[in-house]
Write the structure tokens for this entry.
Amino acid sequence: NMSNFNLIHSAVKEQTSDFRKYFIDETKKSAERQFDKIHSRIESLTAAVKDISTKIKSISSRYLTPYGGIKDMKLFNESMAEERPLRKEKNKYKSLIDTLQKQLNLGKDKFVSKCVNDAEFNFDSKVYGLSDKLCKKGFDYKNLTFSDISNDPKLFNVIITDGENKVHARSILAAEFSES
């Protein structure tokens, strides 16, 4: 029933609040570092696109006449097989550059804020899902206990029980939060 869910959800939110705060703080720091690297990522991807374009031009010069006509169909077909993966890679890089440029255009504050809002929504959705699972398994909110089985702040690792039912809930902060 809804009131049991609300009480369980309230307890789960309370028990995960420290981990949530840590997660959001780390997301903010990570987003700031990520934003600071956008310029150099765009530069290196742009250089890669230029290199690929040079390779493609070199390949196409084998089968194209100076006026853009095809010299030899066999050579054209062989060259296209060589060009296709390069064009695909080039398009992937260009798409990534566009995405990075949009992030850059947001500005640092809006970019970080968007990352934090997305993380909060994601975290809160997971907490809601865990609460729903506990409710569906018939947990009694009056007897809920949470036993933390980890001292690592990057790891949420608890056993949730009400005396009859038991759930092991865990989550770990992703590698994107590492300092490198």
Remarks:
- The radius of gyration is 26 Å.
